[in-house]
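Hello again,

I reread your note about wanting to compare the complex against the isolated chains. To keep things tidy I'm splitting this into two emails, and this first one only covers the full assembly. Below are the input lines as submitted, including protein chains and any nucleic acid or small-molecule components. They are followed by the predicted structure of everything together. The single-chain runs will come separately.
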Amino acid sequence: MQSPLGAPRAPWLTHAILIAGVILFAFPIWIVLVGSTHDAATIGRGEVPLLPGGHGWENYLTALGRGSSVLAGLGVGPMLVNSLVMALAVAIGKIVISFASAYAVVFFRFPGRMLAFWAIFITLMLPVEVRIFPTFKVVSDLGLVNTYAGLIVPLIASATATLLFRQFFLTIPDEFVEAAKMDGAGPLRFLWDVVLPLSRTNMAALFVILFVYGWNQYLWPLLVTTSAEVETVVIGMVKMIGGEANTEWNIVMATCVLSLLPPVAVVVLMQRWFVKGLTETEK
Amino acid sequence: MLEPPGQGPGGAAALERKTVFRGVALPLLLLAPQLAITLVFFFWPAGQAVWSAFLRQDAFGIRTMFVGFENFSDLLADPLYLETAQNTLVFSASVALLSLALAMLLAVLADRQIRGAAVYRTLLIWPYAIAPAVAAVLWIFLFHPQVGLLGRALNEAGLPWDYRLNGGQAMLMVILAAAWKQVSYNFIFFLAGLQSIPKSVLEAAAIDGARPMRRFWTIVFPLLSPTTFFLLVVNLVYAFFETFGVIDALTKGGPAKSTETLIYRAYIDGRVNLDLGASSAQSVILMLVVIGLTVIQFRFIERRVHY
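Full-complex prediction:
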């Protein structure tokens, strides 16, 4: 039977508003995509083109190679590698340590269990932004300024992933645990053979969320990296704009596109798991 | 950073497993990495922030003394700090309302039975991947008074536009860029919330002759309110803290501090002015804000669970 809700009375209006919404998000990307294929003079004169030009290759090769003249000789290639290392390490690191700690809290009884859980939970209330300088001081006392470790490790602990895994582990039927015990399987074997395969979807969802989180970090890398070797692409791009006196806008635009592509690709390709994972706990 | 409704120790999931494994060493070993990082990079620095908020260095940086609440009272007596707090409120409220309203409109429409609904959804979800700082740079390309398409158009139409000189325009720019970036996140949650509303309720209302607008305000909007409230808190936290990149890339807090938010000022005081006492006192105030928002969040969820 046809639902009495049916199709909307004025479908064209619904389409028109949705298309306007899509354009609102796509148009700035189009502008930067087109801008990245023109030469510096065209953009600098303010003749913003709406159609692609013929300097695309050149701009992207320049960006990847020598970069912008504002950041003498620092190419975007190494910055992309740094961002990729950071995003992957943050995502995988968080998943591994959260998985392990959630497993310990859910599948065991030991003294101090609730204390440990609350200690992790309370970190929800301490985002990196509110404890920037003291955290920076700890990192610098440990000699980790301008290293991957300093960039990554302080971002790896967070309650979000641990809570998500805990929530999921609580839904695994008791029969599974009993069966494993009867078969003489220990906790590590159960973790590896049962819980890990069951958690794949959750892990995929978390991976997307955390990869984007790691790639898009701004304040922390700005503070912890002062040398070119560990510069990430988002920060590098903003630095390229500089004082605007001699900004090479076409190179900034090419860098902008390059900095967008990896996280957008991860979200689009893994959209199904990502949306499910993000809203999982809404049920 | 916050959890959706239904999560957390106080929420519906506060269950225990009946069957567990024996052992103490193994679970402690599994917990060790996360606890170590939490202690070293969360509790230790947070404690430091609280401690140094009560200290002050003399002008030569030689002696450090305990000054009690002086850093706090100085801050709260500083008209510039209060102005920054006011800026932050205007900024955060505008970002949250703007992005929530737009996301709700788009989600309600994308949830309708129309052709191509799945395509619309994908095209509205991907901007989730954009970094706040990248969003700011995209808006520079659009609204820069010389290089930007729309910025130039405004000036040519006789409307003087330069967000680098005009404080009001600068505030408008950072609000729009920050809200723009957050719409897709809200869209995803609203869509999920809409899909969990039982269709039978809406059908019954439709049979009773309720028009779509009426159905929205009397059924959909109230049923979405838990999602909306959750998102409101998340959006406020986002606007308070994660928009640092938007402001740094677009205006650097200027012109004349008109777009300086609390987090931006804490950064400037610590990094540029090297006044760690003042910066720590600001960190402590910000921590209290997050704790307050989180408590409101859980209070609300608890009530929802119990009715």
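For quick reference: Chain B has one domain: 74-306.

B.
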